[in-house]
Amino acid sequence: TLSKCCHAMVAVIYPFTWQHTYIPVLPPAMIDIVCSPTPFLIGLLTSSLPLLRELPLEEVLVVDLVNNRFLRQMDDEDSILPRKLQVALEHILEQRNDLASDQDEGLPDCKHGPESSPLNEVVSEAFVRFFVEIVGHYSLFLTAGEREERTLQREAFRKAVSSKSLRRFLEVFMETQTFRGFIQERELRRQDAKG
Fold this sequence. Notes:
- By secondary structure, the chain is mainly alpha-helical.
- The chain has helices at residues 2-12, 49-53, 83-104, 118-135, 154-159, 164-173, 177-188; strands at 21-23, 40-42, 62-64, 69-72, 142-144, 150-152.
- The protein folds into two domains: 1-72, Rossmann fold (3-Layer(aba) Sandwich), CATH 3.40.50.11500; 83-103 and 117-188, no CATH class.
- It has a two-stranded parallel sheet. The chain has a two-stranded antiparallel ribbon with strand order 3-4.
């Protein structure tokens, strides 16, 4: 369960990629890594929780997957995403409960296998739509320079969004390494490339 959840976290941020420390299941002997001042996504077994509580943690979100609750929060979880997008994402993800119960009742999708089940498709599609809503207009603001290099017109890109809450989110999101890596990859692509 732990490993699957960590892999799912990395998968749902598509088309972005996780560019930092990623350890789906951390051996207890290496627990000091969680004190690292860099971003990380790390899975810990329940047996490591007593060790975790003894460490000086800074900005760390800890989720107990067994009991479906937060053990440690940053207290900004409800204010990061624009409320309208958060509600829409939650509404779509509520469908997963129906699909999950259908799968538990033995209705597997034999044609596609477990990795492309209806549940996976609902979750993946929900997050792709979410990211398209937030940054899907980026290509309109990639302009070619003198030597055919493309550059994102950052301020115009942000201001093109009519929602004030989404513009505030974009201000923060555009400063992340995840967004910078995504845009840098697009800027370096040849303008005439297919695909």
